[in-house]
Write a structure and sequence with these properties.
Shape: globular
Number of strands: 7
CATH architecture: 3-Layer(aba) Sandwich
Order of helices and strands: HHEHEHEEHEHEHHEH
Helix content: 40-55%
CATH class: Alpha Beta
Strand content: 5-15%
Structural class: alpha/beta
Radius of gyration: 19 Å
Number of domains: 1
Largest sheet: 7 strands, parallel
Strand order of the largest sheet: 4-3-2-1-5-6-7
């Protein structure tokens, strides 16, 4: 497990972690909507497949060197005055302090809070932004940002590089990310990484639905409910991440992957 960006050489200026980044606004793109509108001409379908493949490769290359990540999900609708924003900043900072790269969807609200906390604590802050019909401005606390046309490619990147997942309060998008992650773990498509719901008051009713409705109906098992950790404590969440990453998945503090010049890295 790496402890963040490598220390600059003495001759290089030390980056100011308090400065914000400036990213261009997303631009509307109808590609995904067209893809989901049923059959098209074969030539059009081939172009779409090539575009999706290129977007996957672009994401793989951009994120190959980000180091061990934890992905933080959460709503874009809570601003900096909300208590949940402070919770997001705290979890981002504590993850950065143990050498974890913080990855989010790159947008405003609680995504911004986690990125901001990581950056202010001296850690790495990554965003996987999505192009929407209305412009979405990436938040200004990102060290690197990759923008995607397709939601499913973006979600692939959000899970591919992470060893744990933290969900702050959110809406449909956050629920989608939570349950897709749970399905991947439940079906063995992904290892049993920690999935932490941060905010007991907000998330407890959801967990009760799982325990009191789905479990008695037989649609899920006890082991499925046990995949979720519910807590109010960022410190507890980070302790679980650190313990699991090292004990179960063998992460150690070591060098990052080496760049290969012949791959254009």
């Amino acid at each position: 497990m790496s402890k963040g960006p490598e220390t600059p050489q003495p001759s290089a200026p030390v980056p100011d972690r308090t400065e914000t980044s400036v990213w261009p606004s997303s631009t509307p793109d109808p590609s995904e909507r067209q893809l989901l509108q049923g059959p098209h001409a074969r030539r059009h379908e081939l172009r779409q497949a090539v575009r999706i493949f290129k977007e996957c490769i672009r994401g793989f290359r951009a994120l190959h060197f980000v180091g061990p990540c934890v992905t933080v999900f959460g709503s874009a609708r809570f601003d900096a005055t909300h208590p949940y924003y402070a919770l997001g900043e705290e979890i981002g900072a504590k993850l950065a302090e143990i050498g974890i790269t913080v990855m989010t969807g790159g947008g405003p609200g609680l995504m911004e809070a986690a990125n901001r906390g990581a950056r202010m604590a001296g850690g790495r802050s990554i965003g996987c932004n999505i192009q929407l019909p209305k412009e979405q401005q990436p938040n200004p606390y990102l060290d690197a940002m990759v923008e995607f046309r397709y939601f499913f490619v973006r979600k692939l990147m959000l899970v591919k590089y992470s060893y744990a997942f933290v969900a702050l309060p959110g809406g449909f998008g956050t629920l989608d990310e939570i349950f897709e992650t749970l399905v991947l773990i439940q079906t063995g498509k992904m290892k049993r990484f920690p999935l932490i719901l941060l905010g007991v008051e907000f998330w407890k009713p959801l967990v009760e639905v799982l325990r009191e409705r789905l479990l008695p109906a037989g649609t899920i098992d006890d082991v499925d409910v046990a995949l979720i950790t519910l807590t109010d404590s960022p410190a507890e969440a980070v302790a679980l991440v650190r313990e699991t990453a090292m004990r179960d998945f063998g992460l150690t503090y070591g060098p990052r992957a080496r760049r290969r010049w012949y791959l254009g890295e």
